[in-house]
Amino acid sequence: MSTTAASDTGATDGRSPEEIRDRYNTIGPITGSLHLDLQGTGEQIVVGIGSRRGVGIRDVRMAMGQALSMAGLRARDVIAIATVDAKQSEEALLELADVLNVPLKFLPADVLAGQQVPNPSPTTERLVGVPSVAEAAVLASDAQLIGNKHTYRGVTVALGRVAQGAPAQQASPGAYAMSTEPGAYDEAYIAEDLGHHGDAEVAPGLVDLAVNVRGAAPQWLQQRLRDAVADLAAYPDPRAATEAIAARHGRPADQVLLTAGGAEAFVLLARALAPHRAVMIHPQFTEPEAALLAAGHEVQRVVLAPPFQIDPGMIPDDADLVMVGNPTNPTSVLHRAETLIALSRPGRVLVVDEAFMDAVPGESQSLAGSPQRPAPNVPGLVVVRSLTKSWGLAGLRIGYLLGAPELLRACAATQSLWAVNSLAVEAALAVTTPEALAEADGFAKRQAEAREHLIGALAEVPDVDVLGPAAAPFVLLRAGGPDPAGVHLRLRQAGWAVRRADTFPGLGSGWLRVAVRDESTSDQFAAALNQAVHPAPQQ
Ligand SMILES: Cc1ncc(COP(=O)(O)O)c(C=O)c1O
């Protein structure tokens, strides 16, 4: 299968992914040729887009990235973007075409109106005179629609497959805005992949092994939140919850800042800091890097190779900001506290993302501190915590930062007013009591047993390597077999949503992240994985 599209910027220099991996095993600048997985699947895809006026590039990329991901396709497969001619001044669409280095095709409304779209929308027809811009733009480009159209924050995306050999870009009427900037593709690729999250993989009818959040908050917590609704007339007051969290970590209250989830904590840090050399240790959760890039900082990556252990010597001496996850998403690796402490230096901010630490029984390697085990005195250490995972509160948005008061004040100064709402504050109070902490520890222990069961079941599947030891509520695996890149899609076709992990820097085709669920689900998944890794030969 050909892997090099016409718009290839030559980023791989003809080297194999293994050669590139070896070369960039240590340090790679984000703007360099780091990407291990720039190949497409060999398909030629036209992306039809309908969008609200003034839409932002991030929403357009997310919508397209999610649609591609759900169809098992890559950004590299895209050969053209098509929309209605009324969108000629939409900068986000121009920018998308530019960074993907593909033509942007503006089609007249009457050409689009003549297409028989499968999913017409009366609202779009009333506003634009076309029942579905996205679907019609694909059909008018002589491409065949794949799956359903996908909508994200006012952007609708339809994907179309161009028959092999058909010159789709010339086939239809309409003007093209051509990209002139070679090499811009890399940036698009990075941004799009940084924005991919497990929730984009979930769809009706699929068993969700993609999202790492506990199914639902416990009943008592749900009831407490319902009761707190009565007090919503008052503005949020984070003081009591801040005190409670400080006490739980054996720290003074000025070392705690409540945030709207760990995700907001990264944004605040990116706004408050002005790093000269920011280093991300990958593979890891991509939002910290996305936040730094969005704040205008350059990022340097240190990409670990399996088994993803850290050697402090890999970090450039002059790095003044280092970000690392523990336990790490998606590898599930739990680094030793001493290893992380060894990353600190005078003048360096060391951010340890402990979003999943409450899933580790006893939080053994945590640097957050507790009354029994005070936080180590590491200047520049900042710990990010989340309360959304183990408590099933992703929709509520609650987490916090632990660190030096002056840094937290700088973060707080960039936070929007009342960013942490009253229900989130109530949840933080509720899950910080000794009873709740004991419950969380019990949950972590049961989850660890379930994880061992999952790992055992996966170990039985030929041509699948599970990365171990795992410490988080998910495991990372690498599927082999005749077509590793197709395993994700075949699992979806069989009813299973897992998180494709090839979008994480440093990982490539066949890597998948699988959430820990109950034993019977894990057994059924292992059987489905076996089928997906060893598909029956096509007749
Ligand atoms: C490693 C890691 N850190 C932080 C977060 C942010 O979580 P939240 O914003 O829900 O607290 C996530 C979410 O997926 C994550 O995977």
Automatic annotation (TrEMBL):
<dbReference type="GO" id="GO:0008483">
    <property type="term" value="F:transaminase activity"/>
</dbReference>
<dbReference type="InterPro" id="IPR004838">
    <property type="entry name" value="NHTrfase_class1_PyrdxlP-BS"/>
</dbReference>
<keyword id="KW-0456">Lyase</keyword>
<comment type="similarity">
    <text>Belongs to the class-I pyridoxal-phosphate-dependent aminotransferase family.</text>
</comment>
<dbReference type="InterPro" id="IPR015424">
    <property type="entry name" value="PyrdxlP-dep_Trfase"/>
</dbReference>
<dbReference type="InterPro" id="IPR015421">
    <property type="entry name" value="PyrdxlP-dep_Trfase_major"/>
</dbReference>
<protein>
    <recommendedName>
        <fullName>Aminotransferase</fullName>
        <ecNumber>2.6.1.-</ecNumber>
    </recommendedName>
</protein>
<feature type="domain" description="CobE/GbiG C-terminal">
    <location>
        <begin position="45"/>
        <end position="159"/>
    </location>
</feature>
<feature type="compositionally biased region" description="Low complexity">
    <location>
        <begin position="1"/>
        <end position="14"/>
    </location>
</feature>
<keyword id="KW-0032">Aminotransferase</keyword>
<keyword id="KW-0663">Pyridoxal phosphate</keyword>
<dbReference type="GO" id="GO:0016829">
    <property type="term" value="F:lyase activity"/>
</dbReference>
<dbReference type="InterPro" id="IPR015422">
    <property type="entry name" value="PyrdxlP-dep_Trfase_small"/>
</dbReference>
<dbReference type="Pfam" id="PF00155">
    <property type="entry name" value="Aminotran_1_2"/>
</dbReference>
<dbReference type="InterPro" id="IPR036518">
    <property type="entry name" value="CobE/GbiG_C_sf"/>
</dbReference>
<dbReference type="GO" id="GO:0030170">
    <property type="term" value="F:pyridoxal phosphate binding"/>
</dbReference>
<feature type="region of interest" description="Disordered">
    <location>
        <begin position="1"/>
        <end position="20"/>
    </location>
</feature>
<dbReference type="InterPro" id="IPR002750">
    <property type="entry name" value="CobE/GbiG_C"/>
</dbReference>
<dbReference type="Pfam" id="PF01890">
    <property type="entry name" value="CbiG_C"/>
</dbReference>
<keyword id="KW-0808">Transferase</keyword>
<feature type="domain" description="Aminotransferase class I/classII large">
    <location>
        <begin position="218"/>
        <end position="529"/>
    </location>
</feature>
<dbReference type="InterPro" id="IPR004839">
    <property type="entry name" value="Aminotransferase_I/II_large"/>
</dbReference>
<dbReference type="GO" id="GO:0009236">
    <property type="term" value="P:cobalamin biosynthetic process"/>
</dbReference>
